[in-house]
Every structure is written in structure tokens, then in C-alpha cells.
Write a structure and sequence with these properties.
Elements lengths: L4 E4 L5 E5 L5 E7 L5 E6 L15 E3 L4 E3 L4 E3 L4 E3 L9
Antiparallel strand pairs: 1-2, 2-3, 3-4, 5-6, 6-7, 7-8
């Protein structure tokens, strides 16, 4: 079983992830609004690190951060409302 340790900045944004041996498997630098400026992933790593600001998860397809029913755009520093269409009978 793989256990990873997250190292965060003061605002809880991940800046590094290490494995059980203390080897860095992911390292990132973020901008003030929570977006990623630079990310480095170790060649042997099997880790997909999509955590951003607290309670936000990176949606790789849109580049937006998902946060319970709404999306945050780190480039603009604003939330984007995306209308969800529910099927009706």
C-alpha cells in the first residue's frame, strides 16, 4: 500500500508530496489565486495530484477548480456558474 504525505503552504495549497521513503514524487508552485504556476511529477510516480485550494479539486478537462456545485477560475480569481441540465421525463 502506498502512503503519500502532503506538504502545504499556509493557505493549505499543496506544495509537495512525498512517499514513505521521503522521496519527492510531486512538487508544485501556485499563484496567489490558487492556480498552478508550475508542477513537477517524478518519473516513477503513480500519483495524480488534483487538490487545489481547500475543498477544491482540479477538473483537468476545463482547467477550473470544482467546489461543490460551482467552479472557480484561478486565472480570473472568480467563481464561474455553470448551468447543469438535468434530464426531465
Amino acid at each position: 500500500m502506498d502512503i503519500f504525505w502532503y506538504h502545504t503552504e499556509l493557505n493549505d495549497v499543496a506544495e509537495g508530496v512525498t512517499d514513505n521513503n521521503g522521496d519527492t514524487v510531486w512538487r508544485g508552485t501556485s499563484i496567489a489565486r490558487g492556480g498552478s504556476l508550475r508542477e513537477e511529477l517524478a518519473a516513477r510516480a503513480r500519483l495524480l495530484q488534483n487538490l487545489r485550494f481547500r475543498n477544491q479539486y482540479l477538473d483537468c478537462e476545463t482547467g477550473l477548480h470544482y467546489k461543490t456545485f460551482r467552479y472557480y477560475d484561478p486565472q480570473w480569481g472568480k467563481h464561474r456558474w455553470i448551468r447543469l441540465v438535468w434530464p426531465t421525463d
